[in-house]
Amino acid sequence: SSKGTMMDNRFATALVIACVLSLISTIYMAASIGTDFWYEYHTLSPAENVSEAGRSIWDEFVSEEADEKTYKKCNGTVGLWRRCITVPKNSHWYSPPEPDMTTSCISFSLSDQFMEKYVEPGNHNSGTDLNRTYLWRLQFLLPFVSLGLMCFGALIGLCACACRSLYPAIATGVLHFLAGLCTLGLVGCYVAGIELLHKKLPLPDDVRGEFGWSFCLACVSAPLQFMAAALFIWAARTNRKEFTLLKAYRVA
Questions:
Q1: Which of 34, 44, 103, 119 allows an S-S link to 126, with CB 3.0 to 4.6 Å?
Q2: Residue 50: its pLDDT value, please?
Q3: Keyword set for this entry (predicted)?
């Protein structure tokens, strides 16, 4: 009896830890999707130079012809759903040396997410770049697939609690493992897409680019999903094995 209680406590602890890891990874994934700091551009130019160029950059940024070249000319961020730039509030000749900066964002529409990428960024006549096109589409779809798998896994977990059985926890673990693969794929697609873009369109000398904290949240989410998956599967399989052995022992 005490041995059975000890086993139950061990499984319960594993499941609690797995649930906590699953919850944290879900929060990280949702925050990652909803924020705009996947990649950040920082200009190294003096403030007065930024002020002089601010109006022309802003006009180009909000135009319908805006492309991937626009938000690399000044301070800005790119997310999965929006792109943002930081420009001076006033771009007149009498602007102060240290102008007040304001951040403005433009959202990607659903058609923008599935729009073709071109061999020469910004040149519609250069043909379709299939690699970048499908990488962009995958980086948009994969996070939602990952979240969907985790939510479905959570529903199965609730059913397992209601049935007072650990067997469905295997399905929950498998779904979390698949979610982790999707998140890992998302990170890989995003990095590959950025690298291909910068190979075709190198950053200006006065602009520095780096991955932002939204990207880091997605990176952290993947291993959490894998750890949760491992704990769910371990608890279910070990419990089933020990239950079978205990049953065989009683019969004997």
A1: 119
A2: 52
A3: Membrane, Transmembrane, Transmembrane helix
